[in-house]
Design a protein that fits this description.
By secondary structure, the chain is an alpha+beta fold. The chain has one domain: Factor Xa Inhibitor. 33% of the residues lie in helices and 15% in strands. It has 3 helices and 3 strands; from the N terminus they run H-E-E-H-E-H. A 3-stranded antiparallel sheet has the order 1-2-3. It is elongated.
Length: 66
């Protein structure tokens, strides 16, 4: 049997924590900053941990070795 490969797009977008949760960059910071409040821009910095439903899907479909 061939090995299952991780999707290369997922490698760049997601990281797994030691406890198995999935970390991802915050959405909504690519463009259109003038429409957003300074509070919102500040809160969207850095990374966030995905919800369980989304994390399960990412791990099963895109990162089978994670």
């Amino acid at each position: 049997m061939p090995k299952m490969k991780t999707k290369s797009g997922a490698k760049k977008r997601f990281k797994l924590t030691a406890s198995g949760k999935v970390k991802a960059g915050q959405a909504g910071k690519q463009h259109g900053m003038i429409k957003r409040s300074n509070d919102q821009i500040r809160k969207l910095r850095g990374t966030t941990v995905l919800k369980n439903v989304d994390a399960k899907r990412v791990k099963k479909s895109f990162m089978p070795n994670g």
